[in-house]
Amino acid sequence: MNDFTFYSPTYFVFGKERENEAGKYIKKFYGSRVLIHYGGVSAVKSGLIDKIKLSLEKEGLYYKELGGVKPNPRDGMVYKGIELCRNEKIDFILAVGGGSVIDSAKAIALGTPYAGDFWDFYADRSLTANASALPVGTVLTIAAAGSEGSSDSVITKEEGMLKRATGGECLRPKFSILDPALTQTLPAYQTACGATDIMAHVFERYFTNTKRVETTDRLCEAILMAMIHETPKAIADPDDYEARANIMWAGMVAHNDICGVGREQDWNSHWLEHEVSSLTDCAHGAGLAVIMPAWMEYVCAHDIARFCKVACRVWGCPMDYDNPESTARAGIKAFRDFLRSIGMPTSLEELGATASDILYLVKTLGLNGKKTGGFLPLGEEDAENIYKIACRDKRF
Ligand code: NZQ
Ligand code: ZN
Question: Which numbered atom of ligand 1 lies nearest the CA of 200?
């Protein structure tokens, strides 16, 4: 196991109706002038925003609202939020929504006290390490991105449609309210996209070259198995609170890095996917359902034993000692079959991209001759090959 420092100071407030405590927690973290940031329609339609406002009013907190964050959030909304925060002397941002809203809130939090352009942090991730940001709290409405516990934020710059991530400790939310009942209004497709993202966050950590990391291997395997068990239940019965609760906590644990400490991590599937969602505006999870199994197929030979481990322990595949590669590939097939069973796409065409887009996707990765990824570093030619695998229709 590698050395590590792990600091994850978010206060998690979990359970039914806990969103009514939003005002109380903002006060706990010294907020007095609040920006309530939210998405398109769901949180308004469900009455959640009214509940939040009531909770803030009860605590005597001043607030302004900024709704309209789109999935795959854009820089235009961030600039708007920064201006509002500066004009209104906002000292706390409450994100009510999913990863897109939370990431937009984090970007506004970074940009408000910064003299330059907030995009600097996304163009050069290292800047965020020593940055300061306004405090952010969250009320999560979809289990997926894990932004409620992560130190990351992903924003798309509309000019050139560049989707880029940044990360630093100042971006960990002060508190996150997780009421699984809020996710019961999610359509099956969004539930499945979220589940795919959660599983992908585990796989990005699971595929590592670091030796003897049994504790985090087993944590990863446990989350994957819980997701395989609970996701079909939440899709069959959207009101299954217990399934929603297990998935919601899995989403947090999968990405606050407790499963990733002490080991190299990969992340190439995420970088490859971000170009797909910025081109097609598909849901991030749907993009991963296409890219991640393709990436697995491509890199499998790098460590057959690790692929066998997940195939046997998680997917229950029998070990073929005479032909370990067939076991490894059976695990990848089991993953793809599972994704298909929960309604996820498994080819780029289903997302609205075609083989003719591949060169554009490779170019916008911005590798410029470099290689990325902690499991098997990959360059432009590899990326092109993975996108080609992702083009094949896997249904037949
Ligand atoms: O805008 P509304 O109307 O709320 O609709 C949203 C949106 O259309 C809807 N939704 C959310 N909660 C709902 C609901 N509909 C009904 N009932 C509810 N309770 O769901 C749609 C998707 O929401 P979004 O926030 O986009 O989903 P998600 O949480 O998957 O976030 C995706 C974004 O997070 C980034 C992705 O790249 C993408 O931009 N990521 C952020 C990470 C991080 N900050 O750590 C890591 C991830 O790997 C990921 O890259
Ligand atoms: Zn993700």
Answer: 48
Residue nearest (by alpha carbon) to ligand 1 atom 40: 145
Query: For residue 185, which atom of ligand 1 is closest to its CA?
Result: 17
Residue 290 has pLDDT above 60, yes or no: yes
**Token couple for 249:** 């906590």
Enter the pTM of the model: 0.98
pLDDT tier at 129, thresholds 50, 70, 90: very high
CA–CA gap between residue 37 and residue 383 (Å, rounded): 36
Domains of the chain are: 11-182 (3.40.50.1970), 188-391 (1.20.1090.10)
The whole-angstrom separation of Cα 303 and Cα 234 is 34
State the Cα–Cα distance between residues 98 and 309, nearest whole angstrom: 32
Give residues with Cβ within 8 angstroms of 69, minimum separation 6.
Answer: 37, 38, 39, 40, 77, 97, 100, 101, 104
